[in-house]
Amino acid sequence: MIRESSFLAAALAGSLAFAVPMAQADDTAGKLARGEYLVTTSACNDCHTPWKMGANGPEPDMSRMLSGHPQDLELPAPPQPVGPWVTAVTASNTAWAGPWGTSFTANLTPDPDTGLGRWTLRNFVETMRTGRHMGRGRPVLPPMPVAMYRHLSDQDLEAMFVYLRSIPAVPNRVPEPLPPAPEG
Amino acid sequence: MRRPCPWARPWVHTAALIGAAVVGVLSALVAFAETLSADLPARLSETGLYAAGSGGMSVGVLAYAPQYPLWSDGAGKRRWIRLPPGTAIDATDPDAWSFPVGTRLWKEFGYGRPVETRMIERAADGSWRYATYLWNVDGSDAVLAPEKGAVVDVAEAPGGRYVLPSRNDCRACHEGAAVPVLGFSALQLSPDRDPLAPHAEPLAPRMVDLETLAAGGLLENLPDALHRSPPRVRAGEPHARAALGYLHANCGHCHNDAGALDGLQMVLAQRTAPGSDSVAATLDSLLGRSSRFRPNGADSAQRIAADGHHMLTMRMRTANPFARMPPLGVQTVDETGVALVERWIADELENHTGAEP
Question: How is B258-310 classified by DSSP, letter by letter?
Answer without folding.
Answer: SSTTGGG--------STT--HHHHHHHHHBT-B-S---TT-S--BSB-TTS-B
